[in-house]
Write a structure and sequence with these properties.
The protein is of the alpha+beta class. Helix content is 17%, strand content 43%. A 14-stranded antiparallel sheet has the order 5-1-7-8-9-6-2-3-4-18-17-16-10-14. Helix 1 runs antiparallel to helix 2. It is elongated.
């Protein structure tokens, strides 16, 4: 095998493919990055039996072939190379890499022991890449991180015609993001539970392309697999991952159809105030929020410990109420909202708050909602 490729293009593709490599691979070959050179250029692949990454790029291939080398080592080397064409040649059990005056000799691993990269299911539809990346970033805010509850570490992706919904919950909060997309068939209706970490990383990594193709197996071959593909200036990037098993809780019904009290507050002002007041909140204690007389008052601390209080101007409609929330969870929700004004809606003090953004555009409807369970206040 022998090929020449532009250093920047190759380094970018290697870094993208190597990002999914396992930290502690179950077998040595799973730490490898597979390079395949053929008439159409290069294909770089990684796979750990759960998630695969595949990048294609143009190159001058003088001799076709394939080689498996340490992915993280190759990524580190490529980042340090000068901005000159890169040549890679397979010489027996070693791969020789030359770039300008820099030369490296890499130990190879047996290609025949590397697992077969899974194929993409049939395309389900497409969505603008930047829109998708932003929507996923909002949704994963509420995803669980406890591996003892694996179902809650996923994002439920629901497709219903031209609407794509993303839901996540860790039992204490819930996020829902809805967006328009272009399905391959107009009446498609399917759902999948995707690992939140993989989904978030994949959506960010594909944001440079114009659009993302989502390929979700519905029945038959490839069931339990989802794929994402995007075309960039450097070539085609493709990721597949296995879906999570288990039944995601039916959480949509948690969003109430009515509200007895709601307040609208400048988001930036509320975030700044909450950060200050929560400095004195002890671990696992709530920040108290009191809505009354057109003012939102934040309080934290109690007894002989440090205390803090701050008032924030707000528009309040409905009954006065006092409640409390985990300050970090509250900040997470506020940070995920795009609009400059946030609305906090309640049915009663002991029930969850539903947060959404409010825009000056009367025709604009918030597409992201964040529900947060209250915390018991210290007496």
């Amino acid at each position: 095998m022998k090929f020449r490729v532009e250093r920047d293009v190759f380094a970018d593709a290697v870094a993208w493919a190597a990002r999914t490599l396992p930290v502690r691979p179950s077998t040595p070959v799973l730490a490898g990055l597979l390079i395949e050179a053929g008439p159409d250029g290069l294909v770089l692949s990684t796979f750990d039996y759960e998630t695969s990454a595949r990048a294609t790029l143009d190159a001058e291939v003088h001799e076709p072939g394939s080689v498996l080398v340490s992915g993280r080592l190759l990524a580190d080397i490529c980042r340090s190379l000068p901005a000159k064409p890169l040549d890679l040649t397979l010489d027996g059990p070693r791969a020789s890499l030359t770039c300008g005056s820099a030369r490296f000799s890499l130990q190879t691993m047996p290609v025949d022991e590397y697992p077969t990269i899974p194929q993409m299911p049939a395309a389900t539809g497409t969505v603008p890449s930047e829109v998708f990346a932003h929507a996923v970033g909002q949704a994963v805010t509420a995803a669980g991180r406890d591996d003892m509850l694996p179902v809650l570490t996923g994002v439920r992706l629901e497709i219903d015609g031209t609407t794509l919904s993303l839901l996540a919950t860790d039992r204490f909060r819930l996020s829902l993001r809805e967006l328009d997309w272009s399905p391959s068939t107009p009446d498609v209706s399917v759902a999948a539970l995707v690992p939140a970490k993989v989904l978030g990383d994949t959506a960010r990594s594909l944001s440079a392309g114009g659009e993302v193709t989502i390929a979700l197996s519905q029945t038959g071959v490839g069931e339990g697999l989802i794929g994402f593909e995007s075309k960039t200036a450097g070539g085609v990037r493709r990721t597949t991952t296995r879906l999570l098993d288990g039944e995601f809780p039916k959480v949509r019904s948690l969003f109430p159809n009515e509200r007895l009290t709601f307040a609208r507050v400048d988001k930036a002002t509320l975030i700044d105030s909450l950060k200050r007041v929560s400095l004195v909140a002890e671990r696992n204690t709530a920040v108290q929020l009191t809505f009354a007389d057109g003012v939102l008052t934040l309080d934290a601390g109690s007894g002989d410990e440090a205390q803090a209080s701050e008032a924030v101007e707000s528009t309040i409609e409905g009954e006065d109420l006092t409640t409390g929330f985990n300050p970090q969870f509250l900040l997470d929700g506020l940070g995920a909202i795009d609009e400059p004004v946030v609305e906090l809606a309640f049915t009663q003090a002991s029930k969850p708050v539903v947060m959404r953004g409010v825009s000056d555009d009367s025709d604009h409807e918030a597409v992201f909602r964040y529900l947060l369970m209250p915390r018991r206040l210290l007496s």
